[in-house]
Amino acid sequence: MNSKKRIWRVLGILLSSLLLEVVFAGYILAAPKRLKIGVILPISGPISTVGMSLARGFELFFDKVNEKGGVKIGNEQYLFDFILEDEKMSPEAAAIAAKKLVHKDGAKFVFGAILDASTEAIYQVCAPSKVLHLVFWVNVPWHPADVNPKKPLAVRLAVSPHDPQASDYDYLIKTYPNVKKVVISAPDIGYEGMIEKCKALAKKLGVEVIAVEKWPIGTTDFIPVFTKILAHKPDAIHAMISGQAMYQLRAARQLGFKGPFFSDSPLGPDVILRVAGPEASTDVFCNGMDLGNATEAMRDVMKRWQAKYKEEFVSDAFLGWDEAWILTQAMEKAKSVDPGKVLATLETMTKPGSLQTVFGPGHMGGLKSFGVNRVLVRPIPLSRIMNGKIEFVKFIVPDVP
């Protein structure tokens, strides 16, 4: 072999080695990073069915992302580590769970919870560590636990519970024109503001809220509560913002109430029907989704649920899926997993359609109502149950300035 050929051969070997090193280095750089997401929900106790289905929604969404190799955020690829903790319907348990997620697990994003007191406990842990608290739900809008200008690291990727109430009362009167007297059943956790607004709504429509019966949070036996309610002889019953509406309906029907019953929580009609039973489930309407009219995105969630859990689907999973999806959309747009940058980006996503949800196009709003653009605005379903059959009525599109 002449010297020229030897030189070319050596150069070839060197180039091959260099290319291998470049490819190997590129592989190392492209390896996905892990991002821990904490979720605190009541997965034990009287609303554990709701809590577990919400948690499964999160899990299914993160499974989908991870199956595809993660999501590109900025110049990095990320896989999600989903960490679930039990709030146990207790502020103390919520605080303990938040401390674990923040200080032991190192989560920079923490969702939770459902009860307002637990939600506030979570924020008090997250804020000092610069962790973004994603308020999963709030029962009482404008509660200290809700988003406001004094809480710079809180955002609510959920609608406000009072958003559908005007439409619900309007539907009640148009569908049941003989209704003149309504009794509100409410957990005793500070619903006075919403109660007064519903009284005013009813009055404008020619209906009177003749009584309000409150019950302690955590109630499991609703027979005593509804014995008091039926003593008022209502034409209709409003189960105000409660994940236990199905138990309330069952108690009302067991005691002989045959009039319209409605729930304004996002609790699915499938849950109400399953627990209360077909015989109890007629002249019932709520703000959960009729699965028979599921959107394409909802069908994806349902299909994944069946494949993984092989159990009857619970529609509350849509809410968990959506909140995980919205956070991911914000991260992608921010090109960052820094909590402050993600929050700042969410606050700019105020144009209708800025966000996608399984219910349809959504956006962030609330500047005039809450002082910050940190609450989700999206279509809210109105579904009815008649003779044990669920039917879709319409989507309500709330106006949240």
H and E string: HEHEEHEHEEHEHEHEHEHEHHHEEHEEE
User: How many whole angstroms does the radius of gyration measure?
Assistant: 25 Å
**Approximate shape:** globular
Structural class call reads alpha/beta
Taking the alpha carbons of the first and last residues, their distance comes to 82 Å
CATH architectural name of the largest domain: 3-Layer(aba) Sandwich
Mean pLDDT: 94
Helix percentage: 40-55%
CATH H-tier superfamily of the largest domain: Response regulator
Q: Main sheet, how many strands, which sense, barrel? A: 7 strands, mixed
What low-confidence regions span 5 or more consecutive residues with pLDDT below 50?
22-28
List how many beta strands DSSP finds: 16
Estimated share of beta-strand residues? 15-25%
Into how many domains do the coordinates divide? Answer: 2
User: Any idea of the CATH topology of the largest domain?
Assistant: Rossmann fold
The neighbouring-strand order within the major sheet is 8-7-9-10-11-15-16
Count of discrete alpha- or pi-helical segments spanning 4 or more residues: 13
Structure notes:
The protein is built from 13 helices and 16 strands. The chain is of the alpha/beta class and 401 residues long. It has a seven-stranded mixed beta sheet with strand order 8-7-9-10-11-15-16, with helices on both faces. A hairpin with a 2-residue loop joins strand 2 (71-73) and strand 3. It is globular.
